[in-house]
């Protein structure tokens, strides 16, 4: 009996050690192969010294904890100490591989990293204004930024994502765009961050392979769950950006069961219906110019969260829409809430519009689905 228990313990211990050694080997092989692209590698001792033994915690989540630190040059940094390291260390590899090749004002800068056995850390520039969710969902005075500033933030996020899709030697799909993963520097310049779920593909790949859905509920593109909607592509990030943009406008979660009126439970549908009826949303102390900014963000977001990927714009077209006169932008078909529980009213509206719309290439030639460009009144090709 005792011999059997002893053998079992030995077997489990060996398997545990092999698994961790395998993960360590995988990471080390990757780091060696990508050595010319890598940021600075720090020892765990150096990480502890930067953070003064992890004294100043900025936050924590399922990934681990973030601590404030300082380099020898007195440059402030944020150090993400990864917890619950499992498998082959793929999340760590994703983040280092992705950020090691990126240089853009709207993407978080990875200064360095640490990997010593199960101890893994990522060293970023410190962002004094935290993450966007504090601004969008906050209720204090600091969160009350002007609509122009919020639009500038949205514009910067769009530029960052567009760079990931088209500005690198590889196509980088983030798969987790949400307010929590947008960091803000001292000037509220947004930085796309957290590339743990990111995947790198050839720039020639219009449709990519993915073995499992990835992302955050409320922002995840429907085609990652419902395979019959179309192939997986950069349009998944476009959808997530659209949901984020809706939350910037609403300054609330898109899904909120605690609102006073049930019609406002799903914000994208409620705001779409308001504008479709020719009504503005109730905003206090806003100028006419600010109303235009809000309307432009709503129209753009409504295009981004179309259910079918083929009907969403690219991020390049999103940037073009941001520069377009709002009078030349028209509302797309009504975005549905997921899962697909279409009410009688929704079904009636969809039937009445679909009969007059040509859905080829994701843009209608008549009716509400036209998306005019800034240069003339012909519709934009949103592919």
TrEMBL record:
The answer to whether keyword Lipid metabolism applies is: no
Task: Show the coiled coil region(s).
Answer: none
* Any GO CC annotation of this UniProt entry: membrane
Q: Where along this sequence does the record place binding of ATP?
A: 80
Residues of the region (Disordered) are 347-383
Subcellular localization is given as: Membrane
First-listed, main subcellular location of the protein, grouped into a coarse class: membrane
Q: Which Pfam families match?
A: Pkinase
Protein kinase domain segment(s): 52-328
- Compositionally biased tracts (Low complexity): 369-383
Q: Which UniProt keywords apply?
A: ATP-binding, Glycoprotein, Kinase, Membrane, Nucleotide-binding, Serine/threonine-protein kinase, Signal, Transferase, Transmembrane, Transmembrane helix
The region annotated as signal peptide is 1-23
Topology relative to the lipid bilayer, per the entry, is: Single-pass type I membrane protein
Which Gene3D superfamilies does this entry report, sorted A to Z? Answer: Phosphorylase Kinase, domain 1, Transferase(Phosphotransferase) domain 1
Question: Which molecular function GO terms apply here?
Answer: ATP binding; protein serine/threonine kinase activity
Give the similarity note.
Belongs to the protein kinase superfamily.
Q: What is this protein called?
A: Protein kinase domain-containing protein
What organism does the UniProt record list as the source?
Gossypium trilobum
Kindly list the organism's lineage.
Eukaryota, Viridiplantae, Streptophyta, Embryophyta, Tracheophyta
């Amino acid at each position: 009996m005792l011999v059997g228990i002893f053998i079992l313990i030995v077997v489990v211990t060996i398997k545990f050690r092999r698994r961790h050694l395998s993960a360590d080997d995988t990471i080390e092989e990757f780091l060696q192969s990508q050595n010319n692209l890598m940021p600075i590698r720090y020892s765990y001792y150096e990480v502890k010294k930067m953070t003064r033994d992890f004294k100043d915690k900025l936050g924590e989540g399922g990934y681990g904890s973030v601590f404030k630190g300082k380099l020898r040059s007195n440059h402030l940094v944020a150090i993400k100490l990864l917890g619950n390291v499992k498998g082959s260390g793929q999340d760590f590899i994703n983040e280092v591989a992705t950020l090691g090749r990126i240089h853009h004002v709207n993407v978080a800068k990875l200064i360095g990293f640490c990997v010593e056995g199960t101890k893994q850390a990522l060293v970023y520039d410190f962002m004094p204004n935290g993450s966007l969710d504090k601004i969008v969902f906050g209720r204090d005075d600091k969160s009350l930024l002007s609509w122009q500033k919020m639009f500038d933030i949205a514009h910067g996020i769009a530029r960052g994502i567009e760079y990931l899709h088209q500005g690198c030697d590889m196509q980088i799909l983030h798969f987790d765009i949400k307010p929590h993963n947008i960091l803000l520097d001292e000037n509220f310049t947004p930085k796309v961050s957290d590339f743990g779920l990111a995947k790198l593909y050839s720039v020639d790949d219009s449709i990519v392979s993915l073995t499992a859905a990835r992302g955050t509920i409320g922002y995840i593109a429907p085609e990652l769950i419902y395979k019959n909607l179309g192939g997986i592509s950069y349009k998944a990030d476009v959808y997530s950006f659209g949901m984020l943009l809706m939350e910037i406008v609403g300054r609330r979660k898109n899904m909120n069961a605690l609102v006073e009126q049930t019609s406002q439970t799903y914000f994208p549908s409620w705001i779409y219906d308001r504008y479709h009826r020719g009504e503005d949303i109730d905003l206090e102390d806003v100028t006419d110019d600010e109303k235009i900014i809000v309307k432009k963000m709503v129209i753009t977001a409504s295009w981004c969260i179309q259910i079918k990927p083929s009907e969403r714009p690219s991020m390049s077209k999103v940037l073009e829409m941001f520069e377009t006169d709002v009078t030349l932008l028209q509302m797309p078909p009504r975005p549905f809430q997921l899962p697909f529980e279409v009410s009688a009213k929704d079904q009636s509206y969809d039937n009445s519009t679909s009969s007059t719309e040509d859905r080829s290439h994701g843009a209608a030639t008549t009716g509400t689905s036209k998306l005019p460009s800034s240069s003339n009144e012909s519709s934009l090709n949103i592919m």
